[in-house]
Amino acid sequence: MFRPNMFFLLLLPPIIFESGYSLHKGNFFQNIGSITLFAVFGTAISAFVVGGGIYFLGQADVISKLNMTDSFAFGSLISAVDPVATIAIFNALHVDPVLNMLVFGESILNDAVSIVLTNTAEGLTRKNMSDVSGWQTFLQALGYFLKMFFGSAALGTLTGLISALVLKHIDLRKTPSLEFGMMIIFAYLPYGLAEGISLSGIMAILFSGIVMSHYTHHNLSPVTQILMQQTLRTVAFLCETCVFAFLGLSIFSFPHKFEISFVIWCIVLVLFGRAVNIFPLSYLLNFFRDHKITPKMMFIMWFSGLRGAIPYALSLHLDLEPMEKRQLIGTTTISIVLFTILLLGGSTMPLIRFADIEDARARRRNKKDVNLSKTEKMGNTVESEHLSELTEEEYEAHYVRRQDLKGFLWLDAKYLNPFFTRRLTQEDLHHGRIQMKTLTNKWYEEVRQGPSGSEDDEQELL
């Protein structure tokens, strides 16, 4: 039996941590301001638009009535975007990398923000708010959200930095299994700590993943770097598969309350809330960006607001009374998820082709063959940004002496990265390559021997 607590304790943490750990850090930090604005303020705008629209439509007897906190809770959970299909198409068609990172980065932070907003609404529901004015309610909700967001982010960042210092000064590179075990412990630690002190474990584990990938990862041996990367991808893929399998089965296995007017108005509000989020904020950001967000990019970002498993799991987690209200929210959430994935996700590729934002060389290459496999990247065992082999001199030449670094990137390259990461010597590189070669030869020999015993026995049989 699938329970929301199982989703939040076992299935969601690996998905969120892997998304933060596998970010392309260069593009992410270069666009961190835009991504944060879309993910935090944009998600809040969408939640208020959807929640307020549902509340006022209910008061006008157009759809079923929900109180203010329940409407805001639904608006918050349905604002969690999951553009899996869109990102796969972006990668296949090689669209503008800035557009790719804006959509992908927003979706990562957006999930955590949406969960915090939903928890905020739930917290208001549990309290007795009858004697509190609307302005006081808003201030309480804002204070709770800020505490959850910044407190959880600080806890996750601190845990990631501690893990970097521990693995920098305690050399475990000759024992990859112990090194890998330490990484797994540090990966789940911020989630448990945050939940234990009533903060957001999802927000904490996301920031921990980003920091550990940026610093701790470079203190690992090459074997553990590859092992960590591939294990996280595999576990996250399995967790996503389990969640989407349950999402499909729930259509037929749970009682539903379907109201066509409620579903249609919610879809309209979701699309309108996404538009109010993307277009005004994009025009605002263009005043400060060197790489402008074009109207075509804005439209693609609006169109890529697909909904996935997280909104449905959050709808199950809501403690709504009576039961008919919970069934209505759950059924409406499933309907919106299916609508966005099937209709919007299925229309993304022709829309990108029509909008002509695909790279010209990629268009010629992909005209006959387009691979949309979400698991294709799992076969790329060794990636340059995830296999650190820079010596002290090479790091200084590549980063410290660059004149184009500004702001946080300059501070990170000059001070933070050298403090939290180990700079390798030529001897370290030599030992790492010998270790990789030895283990690879060992695994290769075991595979060639097979179950029959040894390679010599097979040659004698021939």
From TrEMBL:
It is a multi-pass membrane protein. One of its GO terms (molecular function) is sodium:proton antiporter activity. The chain crosses the membrane at residues 32-58, 70-93, 144-167, 197-215, 235-254, 260-285, 297-314, 334-355. Residues 4-352 form the Cation/H+ exchanger transmembrane domain. It holds the Pfam family Na_H_Exchanger. The keyword Isomerase does not apply. GO terms for biological process: regulation of intracellular pH. GO terms for cellular component: Golgi membrane. Keywords: Antiport, Golgi apparatus, Ion transport, Membrane, Signal, Sodium, Sodium transport, Transmembrane, Transmembrane helix, Transport. It is found in: Golgi apparatus membrane. InterPro entries: Cation/H_exchanger_CPA1, Cation/H_exchanger_TM, NaH_exchanger. Residues 1-22 form the signal peptide. Belongs to the monovalent cation:proton antiporter 1 (CPA1) transporter (TC 2.A.36) family. This is Sodium/hydrogen exchanger. The lineage of its organism: Eukaryota, Metazoa, Chordata, Craniata, Vertebrata. The gene is SLC9A8.
